[in-house]
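Reopening this one. Same input as before:
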Amino acid sequence: MTEQILAQLKGLVMDATRKANSGHPGGAMSSADFAVILFRDYLRFAPANPQWPDRDRFVLSAGHESMLLYSLLHFMDLLPIEEVQNFRQWGSLTPGHPESHLTPGVEATTGPLGQGISMAVGMAAAEKQLKSQLGEELVNHKIYVLASDGDLQEPVALGTSALAGHLGLDNLVVFYDKNDIQISGKTSRSDSTDYHVVFQGLGWEVMEIDGHKHAEIRRCLDFAQQNNTGKPLLIIGNTTIAKGTASMEGSHKTHGEPLKVEEIAATKAKLGLDPDKQFYVSAEVKADFCARMNQFNQVAEAWSKKLADRRASDADFNALYTALYEQLPAVTSPDFTEGEKLATRAAFGKVLEAWATQIPGLIGGSADLEPSNNTAAFAAKVGEFDKANRNGRNLAFGVREFPMATMMNGMALHGGLLPFGATFLTFADYCRNAIRMSAIQQLQVLYVFTHDSIFLGEDGPTHQPIEHVMSLRAIPDLLVFRPADANETKACMEAFLQETHRPSLLALTRQNLPTLPYSADAKRGGYICWESHPGSQPETVLFASGSEVSLAIEAGKAYAANTATPVRVVSLPCWELFFEQDEAYRQEVMSMSAKRRVSIEAGTTLGWERFTGLEGRNIGINTFGASAPAEVLAVQFGFTVENILNTLAAM
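Same output, byte for byte:
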């Protein structure tokens, strides 16, 4: 029956890619042997409850092989045949690459190569950590990954794999479908890496097999089920792309092009299928494929009863489970004294430390910048997550910004944990695609980027972000917070806790800033933080974010004293939240009738026209920075009261 399952699966792959006139049939066909055996005979998964928390996870890192996964989901009746027929079409549940928030049974949105493996490493770490909190009876599953040559060529995969080996994540199993083909041809044109040796060096157990021989696949999966080596497992499956086709086996053209109609007909005949039938799956194949898996429907039900009994009999456990999976607890954040000077990175560190014991799922760390990112106090409170201490919740990511960000996504996808990761803002570029994937997958993760402007000083242009904040604001469904002081930092962090379906990002200062009065309106993304004539319509409005807000207030006070005209300062810690407010509130804050409108932000000015209009002025930086003390840079780049007053006088 396994051969019939494989044949009908390959028929779906060929028919769907042909009907869509796009897609990647070749890799799906070379990976099919492993995937079918894994799902049919090994995967701990309940089709009736695809979100069962203790299920095994399957991550298709080779997201271009999406029709492989969609076929498997159809065999389990999680996708109707109509959705398979609408592969890559508008409004379907079968987009070109799998999307976790869209399609039942898809554990991670994959497509950008390397990130599937990397998210799976985060999932594996999450399973280990939650097992330490909730116990092995309720958390005991594995993370399986199907990866391609292209996945391992992406450096992010090797970065997270190094962490997986270092952390001893023996609940992680990666099948590397080594068909030695990519879009442009053979992989030998660009890669001669011995991944067997590399992964052994990274601390992995490695097995190498013929990826089409079922007995060898089962031998590896039997080992994976009982793996007690303390090492993650890499199975290198040597395969042939487009395995089973009539005349296209081994052809790189099958990687990214549908097969021709004649080739499909000949291949179906070779596989024992009727060439005249499209999208054919027999009832017998479905029944056989799901026979073992359906037993886990009862296992999942028994698990749910065990969980319910435990929650009913143990109040502390019930509170813990609620906090991890259902509702974050109400938190108490530290108070900050008005007038006190404090860097926003330091304020973040104090809030994070306070939350460490209040939020049991809060987990994360820094990319080798704990003292600079102010995560050290959190680490001291929660302990280090490593081989010896699975209960720890601080992760030492090392100098691995992109791997850190992808692991955060994996932990959030797994469920039960609230991840954060920290580095310098200029290194947001290293994390950017993972940040984008956080937003696409609607994940509640927190990016913490300190040293947010030229005012980090002497490290110079390589470390001084210019375009970063504005470019991050361009990512849909991402909340970018640039708080003005300690109180705004607290408010922005509390706003993050409420955002359960999108990521948040903090851009924080190295330099100390005066603490302003607390305003709950900071959580609305923008508000009037000072005005010379409260209740009056201002003639001058200064817009600012972050460290420039206190400068704007100082300049506003000086201008009001000199001219006796009404002046308003608007703080905009989060543009995205501000533009989600009702129009009346936005109009009230922005006061579009004001004659003079000036923005002040230590970064690129592009975009500030939304507040200042075409006739306004935008004080910022449209060049790279320079190496010098912060106070010198402020003068040289015009971030002074004098320059702001001169700008207003010229309007």
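So the earlier flakiness isn't reproducible anymore. For the record, The longest strand covers residues 172-178.
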